[in-house]
């Protein structure tokens, strides 16, 4: 494999550190970068991996999570709504083509396959990866010592509706997420 091509990809991937997300750090002092989110959701998965079904290959889940946000280098981070979901999906798919084309062919194909697997969320591993990605913002925004800062006015019911399909298959995680949302309502950080 051409080392120079792999190094070029890695240096380009470093740009993920400059993509600013809509969520603040737990401390509330600043907005997180996509790279920080990617690292933290991967660590979260290592810690909470025991909540996945027994047949889920955690090493594969970690690959999916490592690759899925790389498209934000080209596409940016977006708050996905019903109004912009198709546009964001198209923009990210084009970004995946651009970014993964930097890799040698076998790695290009592997990374694109991982990215699409996460997006399609059809495998057990992709479903758990999507659950981890869905849980992460709830944890960093609404956990007991978090700032509670929400980038847009949201209701707990809206978040439940949006996150339920990804988190409900994991009862302990879904119950915990709902507890955090209920507490956020009590604190005045969310409307019911």
TrEMBL record:
**Source taxon at top rank:** Bacteria
> Which segments constitute the HD domain?
13-163
Residues annotated as coiled-coil are none
Please give the Pfam families that the UniProt record associates with this protein.
HD_3 (PF13023)
Q: Does the keyword Secreted apply?
A: no
Q: Does the keyword Transferase apply?
A: no
Keywords noted in UniProt: Hydrolase, Metal-binding
- InterPro entries, sorted: HD_domain, YfbR/HDDC2
Protein name in the entry: HD domain-containing protein
């Amino acid at each position: 494999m051409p080392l120079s091509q792999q190094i070029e990809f890695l240096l380009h991937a470093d740009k993920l550190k400059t993509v600013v997300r809509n969520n603040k750090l737990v401390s509330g002092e600043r907005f997180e970068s996509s790279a920080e989110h990617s690292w933290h959701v991967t660590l979260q998965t290592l810690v909470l991996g025991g909540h996945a079904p027994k047949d889920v290959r955690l090493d594969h889940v970690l690959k999916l999570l490592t690759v899925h946000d790389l498209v934000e280098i080209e596409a940016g981070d977006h708050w996905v709504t019903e109004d912009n979901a198709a546009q964001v999906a198209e923009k990210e798919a084009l970004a995946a083509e651009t970014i993964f084309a930097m890799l040698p062919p076998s790695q290009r194909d592997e990374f694109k396959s991982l990215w699409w697997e996460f997006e399609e969320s059809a495998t057990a591993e992709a479903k758990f990866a999507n659950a981890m990605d869905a849980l992460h913002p709830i944890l960093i925004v609404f956990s007991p010592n978090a700032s509670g800062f929400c980038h847009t006015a949201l209701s707990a019911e809206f978040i439940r509706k949006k996150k339920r399909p990804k988190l409900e298959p994991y009862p302990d995680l879904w119950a915990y997420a709902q507890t955090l949302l209920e507490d956020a309502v009590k604190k005045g950080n969310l409307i019911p």
